[in-house]
Design brief:
The protein has helices at residues 16-30, 47-57, 72-82, 102-109, 127-144, 176-182, 206-225, 230-257, 266-298, and strands at 2-9, 33-40, 61-65, 87-90, 115-119, 156-159, 187-191. It is an alpha/beta fold.
């Protein structure tokens, strides 16, 4: 078995060399072939030079460089597409993930799991960061029905096949376990060590939390309605059209049976709005349904787990 360690980096010049030394000492004890893939996401602090030096010293190091900062998800996606290993392990470059936990992930994977996620049960972060993370985790579990405790932990192990047809964007790296669970892969979890940051600055903030929430809504839609989006848009269209029809019927009764003026009533405008929205939602559902069928027809996503011939 070959391992691919994918590590996104951004302004971690004081950490990458220390991380690499720890990582190599652990990987050598596993007796597996391995490659370490650093994906630099537009660093400006000397991280690139550090990675070039590591590449020159260690033949197992691959260094990929983004032209500018595209975000952690984009860096991980680049690493996944470049990785050649049978098992792909992801971790942060800030030394908060402990490389000594990698054997735990592999042991858990041997129990039949396709994905194993780390759980930072004793998290060494600021109170504000932990509160934001817990709130985000609550929303994620509420909307996706995800079972694991800490999907935001970067330390994870995946079988290579998990990424067939999986394109990541935005802040979606933290929703990979939910997406893979929806696709039928077995996802497990192990408690891992989490260390306080010693060098550099955290990249986490309110902006990432907001963008992550928007991506969560996309994931929720994709998990629940990707096969038949007409169920969502058609339902909304039916609700709007039905309310508009009932309100319009009330206005007609008032007009012809009670001789009341309806032209100056705000309800008349609401009726027109609801009827138009109903038609638009129906049309959107039909178009989205057609696009989804085209996507599934052309997508390389594998729906088959095991084949015996």
């Amino acid at each position: 078995m070959k391992l691919s360690i994918v590590i996104p980096t951004y302004n971690e010049s004081k950490n990458v060399s220390r991380l690499h030394a720890e990582l190599v000492s652990i990987l050598k004890t596993l007796k597996h072939a391995y490659e370490i893939i650093y994906v630099d996401d537009g660093s400006t602090d000397g991280t690139r030079q550090e990675l070039r030096e590591l590449h020159a010293k260690d033949k197992n190091v691959k260094a990929l460089f983004h032209r500018r900062n595209f975000g952690q998800t984009a860096a991980m996606d680049t690493g996944f597409k470049y990785a050649q290993g049978d098992v792909i392990i992801t971790m942060d470059a800030d030394l908060q993930n402990d490389p000594a936990d990698i054997p735990k992930l592999l042991t858990k994977m041997n129990e039949g799991y396709d994905v194993v996620s780390g759980w930072r049960k004793n998290r060494q972060d600021s109170l504000g960061k932990k509160l934001f993370s817990r709130f985000a985790g609550f929303l994620r579990r509420l909307l996706t029905r995800e079972k694991i405790h800490d999907s935001g932990c970067t330390l994870k192990a995946f079988k290579k096949e998990c990424f067939a047809g999986l394109d990541l964007y935005g802040e979606m790296h933290r929703y990979i376990p939910a997406i893979l669970t929806w696709r039928g892969y077995r996802v497990g979890e192990v408690i891992v060590n989490h260390r306080a940051r010693q060098f550099g600055k955290t990249k986490y903030g309110m902006r990432r939390l907001f963008r992550g929430f928007l991506d969560l809504l996309v994931v929720k839609f994709w998990m629940q309605y990707s096969a038949r989006p007409i169920h969502l848009f058609g339902g909304l269209g039916l609700a709007c059209f039905g309310l508009g029809f009932l309100a319009g019927l009330d206005l007609l009764i008032r007009k012809f049976f009670y001789n009341e003026a309806i032209a100056n009533r705000p309800l008349l405008l609401l009726v027109v709005l609801l009827l138009v929205l109903g038609v638009q939602f129906f049309a959107m559902g039909i178009i989205t349904d057609a696009l989804t069928k085209l996507y599934y027809h052309q997508s390389p996503i594998s729906k088959t787990g095991e084949v015996l011939e």
